[in-house]
Amino acid sequence: MTEPAVRVLSDDLLERIRSRAAGYDRDNAFFADDLAELKDAGYLRALVPTEFGGLGLSLRDVAREQVRLASAAPATALAVNMHLVWTGVAKVFRDRGDDGLEFLQREAAAGEVFGFGISEGGNDLVLFGSRTDARPDDEGGYAFHGTKVFTSLSPAWTRLGTMGLDSTSADAPKIVFGFIDRSSGGFEVVDDWDTVGMRASQSNTTRLTGAHAPADRIVRRLDPGPNADLLTFGIFSSFELLLAAVYTGIGQRALELAVETVKRRTSMKNDGRSYAQDPDIRWRIADAAMAQDALYPQLDAITGDVDDLVDHGPQWFAKLVGMKVRATETARDVVDKAIRVSGGGSYFSSSELGRLYRDVLAGMFHPSDDESAHSTVATAWLGPIEA
Prior knowledge:
Blueprint lengths: L10 H17 L4 H9 L18 H14 L1 H22 L6 H8 L4 E4 L15 E4 L5 E10 L7 E8 L7 E8 L5 E4 L13 E10 L4 E5 L7 H35 L1 E2 L5 E2 L4 H15 L1 H13 L8 H27 L9 H8 L10 H13 L5
Parallel strand pairs: 1-4
Antiparallel strand pairs: 2-3, 3-7, 4-5, 5-8, 6-7, 9-10
C-alpha cells in the first residue's frame, strides 16, 4: 500500500477507532465517538481548500487515508465517505473553475456534516431519474417529497444533498439537485437500520416531507437521462473512487488477519507446524495477496487523474465504475480466501474476520452495481446498442 503524502489519521487514532468497531457492530450503534475524533483531527475538512480553513488534500491522498480508516473500521469509513463525497464534488468543481459549491466548502470548514440523500428504492436510473417530487416555491427554491434509502450519517448530518424530479415548471421535467438544512425540518429519519453488516453507519431511510432547499442551495436542474454535466462527473468520480478505497481497506485488513491466523494456528497432522507451512494455505494467501496488490496502483492512478484534470473523454465513466466493481469484488474474494484459511473461529460473531465477511457484502449494493457497470463499459468501448 502507498502511504498518503499527508497523514491526517494517526496510528493511535486508528487503533482507538478499531477498538470500538466490534461494540458498534454488536449494539447496532452509530459511530459517534469515532466521528467526534475524526472531526477533531480535521478529517472532515481534508478535501476543503486551505484558504477556506480546510487541509487542502488531494483526492488521491484522501483515498489512501480511507483505505487505512476502512482497515480499522469499515462502517465508520463507509459513512464518512458520504461527507467526503460531497467535499470531493466541490473540489472537482473548484479545480475546474466552477465556484457553484463554494458554500459547501465554507460550511464543511465551519463544521457542518454533509449527508448523501440520493438513493431511492426501485430507482435503477440513480442520478438520471427520481421518484422524489421536487416542488418549486416560485422563488427558485424547492420542497422535496419522497423517500431516500441508505442515508448514511443519518444521526449526524447537518446538511443533506438530495435530488428530485420537477414535473410542473414550464421547462419540466428537470432533475433538481439541492441541499437542505437539518434545522429546517421537513423530513423524518426512520429507525430501520438492522442489517447484516456496516451496522455502525446507521444508513437509515429518510422520508422527505417538504424539506426545503432555498434558491441559493439549488445547484443543478438537469434533463432526465445520462448527461455530461460537471455535477454528474463530480459525484461519479468521488463516490466510486472513495467507495473503492473503503473496500480496498477491507481486503487489506482481511489479508493481514489471515496471515496472522495461519502463522498462529498449528497442525497436528504436520507435527505441530504452523499452517503457514501448508502448501495449500500458502497458495490461497498468495492468490489473495496478488489480487489485493493490483488495487493500489489502479486507485492511485485514477484518483490522480481526477486531481490532475486528465481528460479521458467517454472512457471516464468506464474507468470509474470499473474501479469500483473491481475493488468491491476483489475485497469479497480476498475476505472469502481469508475465511477459508482461518478456520472455524472466524464463524463466531466476535471474530473481526467474521465481521469483515458481513461488511464486505454491502459492496455489491452500491451503485454502480455489476450489471450497470458492465453496460457502461460496453457502451464506452462498443457504442450504444442500436435501436
